[in-house]
Design brief:
By secondary structure, the protein is α+β, with helices and mostly antiparallel strands. A hairpin with a 3-residue loop joins strand 9 and strand 10.
């Protein structure tokens, strides 16, 4: 007797459901997207026990017509498309016709819906994939759907779910992202009978950010409004001082649909280059409006991934929109004398306190869910032109035209002195700055070296006597492969015997020849970024700037301090060193007078 047998319909449905519904968060996503497609202006999401016991979604959309109810839980039954050609112009979030049938295959469902075209609504109850109740009811226009006992009929799937807390984190992530990408919808989120947040639904993204992340976080966000003939990009990005330890807070939506796309994340990260420290990431909440024919959302059953017809253009435009916004704003880190009022950016603070329920005994936020990160693709950045250029594209920052203060406007002040031979105190009319002299000088040198390397104008000093250093086999291999990088930085090198290197020329930085022994440090940097030539050039220049900059515990004259400040404020990005550390922190006179009780 043969071994191959046809699977039963019930088994087929449960296997297929696994492609769409893999955990409670998947149910929440599909149901909320259905509510959005139904043009709801209010959505209430309630979950219990991490969504395993109950997921309830209530909306005020146009409801489900009574004659459509029989098809609601059939596979590949949808109101969103009719033919394959409709996929080219998809504006709805759902279109595959798999979500409701998949949920019904793995959970119990209670549904009540009233269409605006029907006199009465319909109630239907499904248990173990079978309809056990169906009747007419009187209810308000919209839909109420309750999903209970998820995966109770599939013990193997239930067993592999995580703890209630972990599953709740996944759900919270979905609800927050959908709320952030649909600001016109009032989203209420309830967990185990506690209201976690309730967005206003007034169309203002900053209001939603404030509602979900908190007031202090919202104050550190910058508006983005970019448009051209291909697309428009709107939303908010964080100032560099507001950053996180992973990239999952870089959020993008395409035509209102939250998507995963490593190209978009890489564009955002590149725009923040040298503004953030290593392994720190910005918060971005941006929506891209683009012709549906230019994208493909039918990549995966979850519809979470998207492909673009022209990756290069998308990368450049996203990069420019973020970079220009950062360039047009004052990014000086703001100091605060009152610890209770200062936003604490420690990894263990925001994650636990940004979203509190009304009882104050729980905190749920997308900032907590480390499991949601996915592997990013290492793009060869040399394939993308992300150098800033003057373009005719309109770049608007919010409703106002923001520009950085001119150097003269900022520099109008005086040096008060130096603290610990490391920090310069600089006073302006109504504020004062504490400037890290090493970080400031490092930024100045970095930008000069970048320009000189591009223009091939680095000054060089031939050595009367070459410096001889011994090499390990690995170091010899690195020099042999990346000798041109070091040559472009002003070093002239040649192997001296089997295990030694002769340094015959070094770059001149700020009038002083660089130490030839810096080569060993640069080799370590190259080793860390091998196979990525763009990063190698950038990181070696950063290392060179760092090693040759003014050090801490170095006393400066008043004239030297003034000259350093003038050069810093004339830099393209004076706010951070190339490693991402702040060069300066500002304090206002008002804050100082409050601290001394001169004003209350």
């Amino acid at each position: 007797m043969g071994k191959i047998a046809l699977l039963g319909e019930d088994t087929i449905n449960k296997i297929a459901a696994g492609e769409v519904i893999d955990r409670p968060a998947s149910v929440v996503k599909e149901l909320m997207e259905n509510s959005i497609d139904a043009e709801a202006t209010s959505i209430t999401v309630e979950v219990k026990n991490g969504g395993k016991a109950l997921i309830s979604v209530i909306d005020n959309g146009f409801g489900i017509m009574r004659e459509d109810i029989p098809y609601l839980f059939e596979r590949h039954a949808t109101s969103k498309i009719k033919t394959i050609d409709d996929l080219n112009e998809i504006y709805t979030l759902g279109f595959r016709g798999e979500a409701m049938s998949s949920i019904a295959a793995v959970a119990d469902i209670e549904l009540e819906s009233q269409s605006d075209e029907d006199i009465l609504g319909t109630r239907i109850v499904i248990h173990s994939g079978k309809v056990i109740e169906k009747k007419e009811i009187s209810t308000s226009i919209g839909t109420v759907i309750k999903v209970k006992n998820l995966f109770h009929s599939i013990p193997a799937r239930l067993k592999f779910l995580k703890s209630d807390k972990t599953e709740l984190n996944y759900i919270t992530d979905i609800v927050e992202k959908i709320a952030l990408s649909n600001t016109h919808i009032a989203v209420k989120y309830i967990v185990d009978d506690d209201i976690i947040f309730h967005t206003p639904g007034n169309g203002d993204l900053l209001s939603v950010i404030q509602c979900i992340y908190g007031i202090k976080s919202a104050k550190l966000m910058l508006p983005v409004n970019y448009s051209n003939d291909l697309l428009s990009i709107k939303g908010y990005i964080s100032k560099p001082e507001f950053n996180k330890g992973n990239s999952k807070h870089i959020l993008f939506s395409i035509n209102g649909r939250i998507v995963k796309n490593n190209l978009l994340k890489e564009a955002a990260r590149t725009a923040y280059k040298t503004l953030l420290m290593n392994k720190r990431y910005p918060i971005t909440i941006l929506n891209i409006c683009i012709d549906p024919e230019k994208i493909d959302v039918n990549v995966h059953p979850t519809k979470a991934e998207v492909k673009f017809a022209d990756d290069r253009s998308i990368f450049n435009l996203v990069y420019h929109s973020i970079y220009q916004t950062l360039s047009n704003n004052n990014l000086i880190y703001e100091g605060n004398f009152d610890d209770n009022n200062a936003i604490n950016l420690n990894e263990h603070s925001l994650e636990k306190t940004i979203i509190m329920n009304n009882k104050g005994n729980r905190a749920y936020s997308l900032f907590e869910k480390d499991e949601l990160s996915y592997q990013s693709i290492n793009y060869d950045q040399s394939n993308y032109d992300y150098n800033v250029q003057e373009k005719n594209n309109s770049i608007i920052v919010g409703d106002k035209s923001y520009t950085k203060k001119s150097s003269k406007e900022i520099i109008k002040g005086k040096v008060i002195g130096q603290i610990f031979d490391t920090y310069i105190v600089y006073q302006t009319e109504d504020s004062f700055f504490i400037i890290d002299q090493h970080a400031a000088h490092e930024r100045i040198l970095y930008e000069e070296l970048i320009d000189n390397t591009k223009n091939r104008s680095i000054e060089k000093q031939p050595l009367l006597m070459p410096i001889i250093i011994e090499l390990t086999p690995k170091e010899k291999y690195i020099i042999d492969r990346y000798k041109n990088v070091l040559f472009d930085l002003g070093f002239d090198l040649e192997f001296f015997g089997e295990k030694s290197l002769a340094i015959r020329q070094v770059p001149i930085i700020k009038g002083e020849p660089c130490s030839g022994f810096m080569i060993t440090s640069l080799l370590d940097t190259i080793e860390n970024y091998k196979n990525d030539l763009t990063s190698i050039y950038d990181k070696t220049i950063i290392e060179l700037a760092c090693k040759t900059a003014i050090k801490a515990n170095n006393n400066l004259t008043e004239k030297e301090a003034e000259e350093l400040i003038i050069q810093l404020f004339n830099s393209k990005q004076p706010y951070t060193c190339p490693h991402g550390r702040p060069t300066m922190i500002s304090f206002t006179r008002n804050e100082l007078e409050k601290k001394f009780k001169r004003i209350v």
